[in-house]
């Protein structure tokens, strides 16, 4: 039997969002209860899944999504899908990378009282004027004192919901190609499911271990859900384009 992208319709859009929110809450609860050892492979930021996959999470999401959009073998659908990918990418970029200067994350950090400080008493006082976390660390400073929303939770939720929603919209077109190229379809489906499972697992691990306090995990979750709700509930349904995922 030919494979097609995973279908989110049994749970519905809000059901899928609830799964990710519940995962984070349960992970935080497990961490608070101390039912797992404080030190484990996943408690280290240097574990291979974090270094090679989560930190490059949008890259892997883009690769998998672009292959499925291409597999639909419809130029118009592919073009529209990549436009929606560009919007989702822009949202992630503004929050985490650059927003006419420092990213939104860095701006919130400064607005909430944080900043760049010398790593020791002999440090350069000019570091305090630096307004990005990356620049601060590159100069040997310490980014400290503000509200740092969890970029991991933001990315994992944002990427997962984007991928699930878009693949649901491409199911019909991809089914025709799957009938012609069943082996390729099975491989692509395996890649999609593996990536989504990995994103879910790393979301759980990011919630269990105290990389961020609870308030920063909550804002990461909120920002991860925000684009999906606004875009797929209110904005994208106004444009009747082929391959558009169903509204919530």
UniProtKB/TrEMBL annotation:
Report how it sits in the membrane: Multi-pass membrane protein
GO annotation, biological process: lipid droplet organization; lipid storage; phospholipid biosynthetic process
Q: Which UniProt keywords apply?
A: Endoplasmic reticulum, Hydrolase, Lipid metabolism, Membrane, Transmembrane, Transmembrane helix
User: Transmembrane stretches, by residue range?
Assistant: 12-32, 52-71, 191-212, 218-236
Instruction: Tell me the superkingdom of the source.
Output: Eukaryota
A GO molecular function for this record? coenzyme A diphosphatase activity
Q: Does the keyword Glycoprotein apply?
A: no
Give one Pfam family, short name only: FIT
GO cellular component annotations of the record: endoplasmic reticulum membrane
Q: What does the UniProt entry say about where the protein is found?
A: Endoplasmic reticulum membrane
Protein name (record): Inositol phospholipid synthesis and fat-storage-inducing TM-domain-containing protein
Annotated source species: Thamnocephalis sphaerospora
């Amino acid at each position: 039997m030919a494979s097609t992208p995973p279908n989110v319709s049994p749970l519905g859009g809000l059901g899928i969002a609830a799964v990710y929110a519940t995962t984070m809450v349960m992970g935080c609860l497990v961490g608070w209860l101390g039912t797992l050892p404080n030190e484990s492979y996943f408690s280290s930021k240097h574990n291979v899944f974090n270094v090679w996959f989560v930190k490059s999470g949008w890259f892997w999401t883009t690769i998998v999504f672009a292959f499925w959009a291409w597999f639909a073998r419809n130029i118009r659908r592919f073009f529209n899908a990549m436009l929606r990918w560009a919007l989702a990418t822009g949202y992630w970029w503004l929050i985490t990378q650059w927003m006419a200067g420092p990213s939104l994350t860095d701006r919130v950090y400064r607005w909430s009282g944080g900043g760049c400080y010398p790593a020791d008493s002999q440090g350069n006082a000019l570091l305090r004027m630096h307004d990005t976390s990356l620049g601060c660390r590159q100069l040997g400073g310490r980014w400290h004192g503000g509200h740092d929303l969890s970029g991991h939770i933001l990315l994992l939720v944002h990427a997962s919901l984007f991928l699930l929603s878009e693949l649901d919209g491409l199911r019909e077109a991809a089914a025709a190609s799957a009938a012609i190229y069943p082996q390729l379809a099975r491989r692509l489906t395996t890649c999609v499911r593996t990536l989504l499972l990995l994103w879910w697992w790393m979301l759980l691990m990011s919630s269990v271990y105290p990389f961020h306090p609870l308030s920063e995990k909550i804002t990461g979750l909120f920002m991860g859900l925000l684009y999906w709700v606004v875009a797929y509930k209110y904005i994208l349904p106004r444009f009747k384009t082929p391959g558009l995922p169903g509204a919530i």
